[in-house]
Amino acid sequence: MAPIAMSPSPCLSLHQQMLQQATSVRAFSSSHTRDTTIWLNVARVASARLNIRHAPQHASAIACRQCGEAVVPEDRLDVWKDLPSENWAEMMDFWHCHKPHDHGQEKNGDDDDDDEHLTKRGYGANSSIAAQTRVGFVDLTSFLLAEEDCTGLRFSTPDATSTRSTAAAALDASPATQAPRMLHVTCASCAVHIGFYNTSIASVVLFKWQTTCQTTATASAPSTLAQSAPPTGADCLAATLLATLSRSGSSKSVIVPTIQAPPNPKDDGGEQQQPALHVWVLNSNITYASSLRPSAGPRSALKLLYKPIPVEQADAMLESFALDVQEVNFPVAVIAAAARGFEASALLLPAGERLFNGWRVALLDKWVS
């Protein structure tokens, strides 16, 4: 079974593992030939990490959380794989640009074979990971799947008023001269926005906070199946902010919309106009309790500062080299819900600690299994 837990995954520390291995090996050798081997071994770590396989007793179904209809049938997937961290492509580009060259030194041919092998495996510049049939890729906040493995989904372009049963039909019905980067994916049963379709890699991305999936229990009883409380959009946002902080070392992020939500006649338009959020993580691991939530008990959370900003300002900040901010992408509905949650969490703080130099103070709970 594929764990849906939001606790830190080994994928999140992939770059740390790679750098630690390169550092430890480099300490024992200063020769140029050995350095070349180091970089090849580092790339092998990434290759092995991506191909770790989880052998389930039976493949769990993935269902729409709102209506319960299966969007990936049970036993459809043969294997689950962890996706690498978001800076995987950047690390591979760095390896291709800065790996040592032989400069005329003798080579036994093994390095050429390794280079060719890694290139064929896709660990090179401008490479990307696409879905594979009967393989479920698990990311921190989503599932990456092949369209043929999914059922009960509807596809539409951002400007479309109707949906289609396949991505190809939705693209053919689009009036745009250029194919859109992403398509909306909704549940055919209840029409809830459940994910998107990435046209560049022809893959379906399903949001964890909009789906349910049977998960494995604790390591002490691996054969037992348990249905833990599924993560919400706020839980996924907290996990993403933590991963961004761990990956980049930057505590400031700008949360901008990935894709506008499909039109919903029940919406009053408020979510569609929701601005982006500028977030500054002050403390990534605090524990608090409040008399306003006596039944909740102690909670683990992030303490952060935030500002609602226009999307245009967020784009300018991300393009600026002077501002050290990281881009975090979420759908408009999740950003709007996060803003409301931030405002509600401020009521848990003393009145004098809810504002700081123009910033608003908030608490963001972390997901606990």
UniProtKB/TrEMBL annotation:
GO cellular component: cytosol; nucleus; ubiquitin ligase complex
Location of the region described as Disordered in the Swiss-Prot/TrEMBL record: 102-121
Molecular function in Gene Ontology: cyclin binding; ubiquitin conjugating enzyme binding; ubiquitin protein ligase activity
One Pfam family per UniProt: HECT_2
First and last residue of the signal peptide: none
Top-rank taxon: Eukaryota
Gene Ontology process terms (BP): proteasome-mediated ubiquitin-dependent protein catabolic process; protein autoubiquitination; protein monoubiquitination; protein polyubiquitination
Classification via PANTHER family: E3 UBIQUITIN-PROTEIN LIGASE E3D, E3 UBIQUITIN-PROTEIN LIGASE E3D FAMILY MEMBER
The protein's name: Ubiquitin-conjugating enzyme E2C-binding protein
Organism: Verticillium longisporum
